[in-house]
Amino acid sequence: HSVTDLIGELKDGLTRLTIDAAKWRMPDDAVLQLGAKLPRSLQHLRLGLRRCTELTSTGLLGAFKELPENLDTLMVDFRFSMSINSLTYVGRTRARPGGLATLCDSLPGSLKTLDLVFNRYVGDVDLVGGGCGPDDRPACGIFGSLPSGLERLRLDFRYASYLTDDGLGALGKCLPRSLVELTLKATICPNVTGKGIEELAKGLPQTLHTLSLDFSSCKKVDDGALAGLGNNLPADLRRLCVKASGCRAVGNAGVKSLLEKKLPLESLELVLDKADLLDDEGLSSIAGAVPKTLLEFSLSCRGCKAIGDGGVTNLCEGLAGGRDLSVLRLDFAGCGGSGSQGLRNIAVVDDGTGAAEFGGVGDRGVQAVGNLLREGLRKFELSVGNCTAVTDACLESLINGLQTARAALDTTGPAFLELAMQFKGCHAVKSSALRACQDRLARDTAAKLSCRLNFNTKRIHGKIAMPAATMPAL
User: Around Cβ 17, how many Cβ atoms within 10 Å?
Assistant: First the structure.
């Protein structure tokens, strides 16, 4: 393919256009020609420019200046296009942040949705301003001129080692007051700390209904970051997603502070994988903070060694209080109660039968999950991989709960309940028991249910449906 051929195929009257030019040779003059030839009727444009060689900041800025004036949605992805915001010297590419500082200066005023995926060379000088553009003139920050009517903003800064708290603070100050959805990914940004997240949160507009923040593997993110975010959440927020996977300094205090503000949340997703300071007390605080309005709940605590049955039971009991969840996702894989971080919360308990219970998620926690399943459920996912205390004894509770949810399926909504249960590494869960569960769930239905059982996988997934006798006619 060539850019020239592509330009020749563009027709007037187009309203939606997707161009995937990944790995193409894209010199600046070709990108400028492409921008100039875009049909003026376009309302939805998606440009995939990953790994495009020869594409520099100059070409990208020029293409943005040629965008159609009636554009409603713009999505541009230039990750791994390493000629942008860089300088090649003696055969070596060096980062030179600042070349994108005027990127959004010419965006159409009609724009409602903006989705940008940056390469790793974006930095504070791009967001704060005051740096040098491609022609060495002073430049303002990228987001200083966003359209006043912008409603949805999605930004991806993954691997951006030149992004710090100053950049996030500048972004917070530039967010349009009309914004209803903000999605920000800043994973593996080593210089982002809780201070930057708090400054960003202070700028969140009160019109915001959906907020998704991903700071996974940012080693300096701690409880203070979650506290600063929680204190500044908009009062009318409906959907909240916070991902802090691999942030080992996050624990009970941060989770409690994040959810301390009473909000009318309908959807809540927390990803706290490998949070070494999170234990049963943290799960109990989540249970006490979730609002009655909640319809969708997702929690991932993979590898949190200090979590045990007590915390999972308290969480499920809190979620059960007056709520009809339609989506429930729980991931406790690796919460087996072993490891140096988990030892502080582990106790040996004798129940009188001579059997000792070692810390971690086991049958009692999974049974509590089963008791939570009820009418209204449309999607259920559970993973307890490598939780060696889980046995066949917990399966009965799960099956009973799923059958209760299945019995409530009707023609007013989806006729299927999507299901995924993972028991990988649970050596006390026998394959024969899982096959029996599959047979019971799929009995007398028109559902499609798969069961993968081998030495490395123990998984039931697919859909279960209402009894065939009550299925609506096709």
Answer: 17
